[in-house]
Amino acid sequence: MSRTRIGTRDRRTDATLKVTGAAQYTADIRLPGMLHAKVLRSPHAHARLVSVDSVKARALPGVHAVLTRDDLDGLDPTYGYFIKDQPIVALDRVRYAGDVVAAVAAESEAVALHALELIEVTYEPLPAVPDIEAALAPDAPELFEQAPPGIVPPYGTGASGQLRPRPNVCYEFRYGTGPDSVWDDCDHVFEDSFTFSRMNHFHLEPFVTVADVRGEEIEIWTSTQNPFPLRKELARVLRTPESRIHVHVPYVGGGFGSKHNCKTEPIAILLSRAAGRPVRYCLTTEEGFLTLSQHAAVLKVRTGVMADGTFVARESEVLLDAGAYSDGSPLVAEKACYRMPGPYRWQHIRSSSSCVMTTTTPAGPFRGFGATQATWASESQVDMIAERLGMDPYELRMKNLKRLGEPFVPGESGIDSDLAEGLDAVADALGYRGRERVPRRGMGLAIGFKDGGGVNKPAQARVKITATGSVYVSSGTVEIGQGASTSLCQVAAEVLGTDLERVRYAPVDTDVTPYDQGTNASSGMTVMGTAVLRAAQDARSKVLTFAAGQLGCDPAELTLQDWTVRRGEDTPVPLPGLVARVFGGTGYEFHGEGFFKAPLSSDAPLESPCLFWEIGWAGAEVEVDPDTGKVTVLQLVASGDVGRAVNKLLCRGQDEGAAVMGLAQAMFEEMRYEDGALLNGEALDYRVPMAEDLPERFVSITQEQGHGPGPFGAKGAGEGAMVPVAAAVANAVQDATGARVTTLPLTPERVFDALQALPRERTQLR
């Protein structure tokens, strides 16, 4: 595997385009005669929609189309993942401040905004339910009086789901294994509650779609992570065959989980259909805050242990703030519930996760979704238990960690990382063991743990080789900045024995690109990577079979390198000449097909065994100011196990970017609400990490333990290093002060209050 230097620091194949500004994103698309769309949003958190009068707006010069609830006849006007509850534009009521009521397509954005001012809307305000507590109150108004259509997917042993188990809960997932009787044997039982903050995805490229509807044909360019499921959902909503919908996906400027399913697409399409011209619908940064967010959560954890620190039983309840519509909340509920046990050995597990509807921005998939919430609670409580037992948190973890190959739960796949080895790597880099205590300073460790690769996720790929040896890799994995277009080309180049410079990643176009379920769950290198590997192997086999026929030998006698074939020690034979001899000057192309999907199993709780486990380890050293509660992170060490790095530079970038997002959640980043109103929903007010926020010492360790199921032993990366950071920082604060903060982020006010709440005999910083 020396030809393409698998695992070396190869530069990205898209680097030049991106650094020179030549790369084309959906926001750059311009079509002749293109109109511009803007939407009218509700000022109310919750209100009945009495009337919408758009007559004046439609008459405004320059306006070509207006969309309200009166224009949705003949459609299935709501969409979602498991639950179809979010309308294209508001139907009977609005459910959060920012809910879309109407849309306009005009010659310019200025004209469209003017037209919105002419739309007359009558609202009948209803009581808001701004948070989880309010939504679950006995007298809380229901956001959906009638149940929207929805499904519960099949589950395996120990897992179950339920639609609308109680008012304002759209979905609940449960998992359990092991006897309840073990609680009676526990020496200690600890119960703790934690609050997880809500972040905005804050991707650089906004939500944007350009739609061009001509007759029955619908063509869109859109910033999405899952073009094929999007096409399917649009076909259902629009009641049109999928073959009529043509989805292009240029480069995507970040998504972090937000760019799944319908976002800007339905409105752009319907306005284009009505206007008979292309329509560009691009949200502002501020509108992004009103479109999708991460889930805030309240987590309750009950853990039974023995006096020597042996873990026995864990039960947990996760309440996710789903916002006004379900979006991907049921999926997040599955993962948050399933990952609550963490990477530890238990005799008994019981977990539940509920999606609670509130009158706030809808919540959906977010980097590490479910695992970030679960790990915050789980890893924080591990240190709290260690403190109560008088044990070192590192030793407590080592005592209870699952071993390499040990099943996560009955029916599930085995752990494919040496968890202790990874923890030692981070502890050593941090200087955790053998350190001298320094007043006001402390260190903390945490382990992030998530099943990776998606559930029952299929992927197809195609590799094409021209007569002159140029290679084209075609797959539905979207380049969203993570470097998939580079690494998948490296896989093909390695199999075909050619330079990476000769391999091109084909544009994603649902008319011709092989199917993929979506770019999510860190699945690009394991699921799609395996499909590309098999497609390249298939193409190579066809090339060698063709060459063997020309040379009068068996294909097994030939090797392929640099678009030549060699038989043993014979002189290499260039393939272009062989191809031309048979097919003439018109040439020929060799095609290889590849497919991968993990097998189904009714024994696996989530329908199919986990393809790989994405593990992240983090360590932090902090200094705490007792007078202000300010926390300064002096060191941050983050690590993930990638199995085998196809491109180390990409892996490092993914881990470091993830760790910085985790640090931001730990220290300051959150969407702040007051009585259901978003206070910081714009770029100037929403705090994201800057270069100056990096600790003085920031270390990332790309582990290659070699147990991955993907090409050359690879595993997925990009989420794991975010997951444990917040808990590691909070654990370090406890180590420094004895104070435990259970609500994110760790603002100076919260830390100061925790210091003030310490018993008098423990008020001195350690």
Automatic annotation (TrEMBL):
The source's domain of life comes to: Bacteria
The residues covered by the Aldehyde oxidase/xanthine dehydrogenase a/b hammerhead domain are 20-127
**InterPro entries documented for this protein:** Ald_Oxase/Xan_DH_a/b, Ald_Oxase/Xan_DH_a/b_sf, Ald_Oxase/xanthine_DH-like, AldOxase/xan_DH_MoCoBD1, AldOxase/xan_DH_MoCoBD2, AldOxase/xan_DH_Mopterin-bd_sf
One Pfam family linked to the record:
Ald_Xan_dh_C
Name of the protein: Xanthine dehydrogenase family protein molybdopterin-binding subunit
Biological source species: Streptomyces sp. 900116325
